[in-house]
Amino acid sequence: MLSLLDSIIVIAYFVIVVLVGIRFGQERESMESYVVGSRQVPWLAVLGSLIATEISAATFLGTPGVGYADNLGYLQMGVGSILARFAIAFLFLGAFYKLRCLSIYEYLADRFGGSSHYTAACFFLLSRVMASSVRLMIASTGLHVILGLPFGWTMIGFATLCLIYAGIGGIKAVIWTDCIQAIIFLSAGATMLWVLHDTVGWSQILEVGGETGRLEIFQWIPDGSFWTDSNWFLLAAVFGFINTLAMQGTDHDFTQRMLTCKNLGQARKGIILSGFISLPVAALFLLIGVGLFAYYAQFPDASLPLKIAGEISSVDSDKVFPHFIGTALPNGLKGLLLCGVLAAAMSSLDSALAALSSSIVVDLYRPLLGNTENSQRHVWIARGFMVLIAIVLVSIAWSLQNGGQFIWLAFKIAGVTYSGLLGVFLVGLLTNRGSDRWNLVAMLGGSVCTATLLFLSESKVVDLAWQWPMLFGVSLTFLVGSLPGRPLLKNNASSS
Question: Is the pTM value of this prediction over 0.70?
Fold first, then answer.
């Protein structure tokens, strides 16, 4: 049970977040205001929101698990990730701002036609539902371990709170509450590292981390075959580039907030700076994992959560951090770290609800029904879809309780649909080729390729590092999509 002080801290956090959402819900509603904030959101707020969404519960709880069980090699992906943000800023955002899109998939409608538009929107809906379900599962698992709350009711509580302020205030509420949440979980992470330093000592953390190889970052040469070693620098950096390109450039959950800036220059500043902030933040949470390993080496705990693989029992690294919060932190600090878990979870869930519901209305409802009037009615329709999406997310998250190590599970699931999305966007942005109907074949082929290779590797039928399926899928989508000659574009074939 939480102490009175911890309870007050958590309640104050909930009140602040909900009030911010209600505040933005008082403004005049239109689809442009609800979906892209009338393009008047300060770029610093967008930057804070990007960081909060990217550093989700998968980072807050999953990354310390990687540091506890493995090493700092996860940072190798950050090299490619930073480079990808420059590509997004100067390639993707330029095209989106030129069209003044409410949804980035409208670019595909302008470049190719309706089939590409609808297919990409459906791919996004599927990928974001799956990825957000993973994040919801991770956060609910964390609270379940910390407080002993029922897993199912924890998920329902998360979804309900996010529905209240995201449904009322739209993207503006999401962005401003994300800024608050980013401050909270970064403060929680820094506090946690200070606690470990005060308890164990930096010298001991560095000594234990060095002796066990947990401080290693770069692996320049593959250990064995380059097809099978997921920690090889070149593979990790290339995957970081491709994955970030897909996540931040073709996933409306992320790009939606970039479209709220006043102009293209501000949007570019936000996405580029987010990369240079996200990398040290990832390092912070990895070091928390190393510190936790040193802590439990010095103060053994027989009650650490365990997992069973076959007949072998081992510590469940993903649950060590929440276990520490629930059992080792004093009153006050426990409330702050608990708010960090809540903030990390809600900052990704609220944006997913807003992006999914707005995409359904903008990309599917309005074009397919030919209904472009009554903007306020569309806002209420988006809110209705938001409720349905929340129910779907809770249902899928329940089924993923034992899906594998948190951080890698999130990457693997997202890669299936990201393969098709990124491939077709690259065809449109990098070539003068492509065809509306052929894009459907390319996207399905790329995603099926990724899913098949992922299934075969997870089933141990083929020995393949987990990054390769998505890399092959993106390549196949791009190659197949580029086969037809230049299409007849809607706007005098000049958009590319």
Answer: yes
